[in-house]
Amino acid sequence: MKRALGFIGVFLSFLYDASAGEDILPFDCGNNSHNCKNFCHLCYEFYQGPTMDCLSGLLNLCLHTFDVEMAQNSTNWCIWGNVSGSYSNLSLCTEEISDCLLIPWPNPLVEQIFVDIHTKFFKDCPTEELSDPPPVIIFALVITPICLIPVMVSLVVLKTKNGDGST
């Protein structure tokens, strides 16, 4: 019994030492980046926890960075190579903050952010519309079954004849 109590005491003292000097948050915080604790502390100080309001405020940091990068890159935004870096950074930023706050990603707030930036920056970009395939392809797709139907009918007739071959 004394050994068990001694073990528990050592274990608890180890836990105490491991958290010494750190603020203990009353909620779980992700730890996938060096900024997670900072994000969680901001949410705790201003929103008392990792709420969607806090996420919205933190995602404004991502949006601001994206806006600055897009303003610096005033070339054609419709060319993916010109904006892929900024777009990827925005995506990673929103994912990192959501993961830190243990809020599922993507979520409606993040989806709305991307809809908004597409409306703001990419609304004038041409889109590839679906069109009919060339006439040669249509002809091949239509004529193949038409030609196969008589062949299949004759095969069925030949196979269903009587086995004696008299009919």
From TrEMBL:
<dbReference type="GO" id="GO:0072659">
    <property type="term" value="P:protein localization to plasma membrane"/>
</dbReference>
<dbReference type="GO" id="GO:0006886">
    <property type="term" value="P:intracellular protein transport"/>
</dbReference>
<keyword id="KW-0812">Transmembrane</keyword>
<keyword id="KW-0675">Receptor</keyword>
<dbReference type="InterPro" id="IPR006985">
    <property type="entry name" value="RAMP"/>
</dbReference>
<keyword id="KW-0732">Signal</keyword>
<keyword id="KW-1003">Cell membrane</keyword>
<dbReference type="GO" id="GO:0005886">
    <property type="term" value="C:plasma membrane"/>
</dbReference>
<dbReference type="GO" id="GO:0031623">
    <property type="term" value="P:receptor internalization"/>
</dbReference>
<keyword id="KW-0813">Transport</keyword>
<keyword id="KW-0472">Membrane</keyword>
<dbReference type="GO" id="GO:0001525">
    <property type="term" value="P:angiogenesis"/>
</dbReference>
<dbReference type="GO" id="GO:0006816">
    <property type="term" value="P:calcium ion transport"/>
</dbReference>
<dbReference type="InterPro" id="IPR038126">
    <property type="entry name" value="RAMP_sf"/>
</dbReference>
<feature type="transmembrane region" description="Helical">
    <location>
        <begin position="136"/>
        <end position="158"/>
    </location>
</feature>
<dbReference type="GO" id="GO:0015026">
    <property type="term" value="F:coreceptor activity"/>
</dbReference>
<dbReference type="GO" id="GO:0009986">
    <property type="term" value="C:cell surface"/>
</dbReference>
<dbReference type="GO" id="GO:0032870">
    <property type="term" value="P:cellular response to hormone stimulus"/>
</dbReference>
<keyword id="KW-1015">Disulfide bond</keyword>
<dbReference type="GO" id="GO:0007186">
    <property type="term" value="P:G protein-coupled receptor signaling pathway"/>
</dbReference>
<protein>
    <recommendedName>
        <fullName>Receptor (G protein-coupled) activity modifying protein 2</fullName>
    </recommendedName>
</protein>
<comment type="similarity">
    <text>Belongs to the RAMP family.</text>
</comment>
<dbReference type="GO" id="GO:0043235">
    <property type="term" value="C:receptor complex"/>
</dbReference>
<keyword id="KW-1133">Transmembrane helix</keyword>
<feature type="signal peptide">
    <location>
        <begin position="1"/>
        <end position="20"/>
    </location>
</feature>
<dbReference type="Pfam" id="PF04901">
    <property type="entry name" value="RAMP"/>
</dbReference>
<dbReference type="GO" id="GO:0008277">
    <property type="term" value="P:regulation of G protein-coupled receptor signaling pathway"/>
</dbReference>
